[in-house]
Amino acid sequence: MKRMLLIHDLCSVGKAAMMNMIPVLSVMGIEVCPLPTMLLSTHTGGFGKPEILPVPGNYLKESLRHFQRENITFDCVFVGYLGNVPMVETVLELLKTGPAPFVICDPIMGDHGKYYSNFDDSYREALCALLGEADLLLPNLTEAALLSGVPYEEGMTGEGLHAIVSRLCEMGMKKGIITGTNVGEHRIGMAIVEGGFVEQYTETEVLYQSHGTGDLFDAVLAGAILKGATLKEAAFQAHNFVAACLQEKAGQAGNERDGLPFEQLLGKLV
Fold it and tell me: What is its EC number (predicted)?
């Protein structure tokens, strides 16, 4: 059984981050070892201001040292929401000094062309150091533009997208999937970067929005890759599962803030 170290935040209510990724990866046959970076009472959309507790940096450091003392190894390290520069530096130290498993990084810091309210250029600069350590980078278009320094445009394709990819590759990106690259009428896109080449794909958009979709995409993608799928195969499996979850939610009554009913569809991943 493959084993993943999952470094991400933990939301009690709302189905996001670890609470989406752990059940998906588990049903796909991956042993998930969660190492939280931040604890939240809910996710940050629709529940009012959540109670938030950043996990002290020494906990993460000492946990990693404990793993090393006990010769605990992982087939994959997934790096998600880190939240502050010291946490980025701690994870970077792990990736530089520990064993070299397959490293996946989702550089969570912004959307719609802007940083999330608690981030700025200093956080971006810290994340840039992770690019060369990750085997697979999973930014949305905003995050890809911020990391690369290329000005953001909604639904970028063509020269703008290639400029982003070229710059990220120069900065150390090996492979990547950039989501939100080509948004037309009822279309949603992603760009798969592999071997220095960029392939763009668009799919029919499900006309429903929800929190936690990125975490579900990341989980299915990572699980599929660990089970032997190609990057393209894994990307489309992840897209199809998220689309199915959105369609299921769109057909139900319920508040958007409650997240997607992915539990009902986990059988599709077995």
Answer: 2.7.1.35
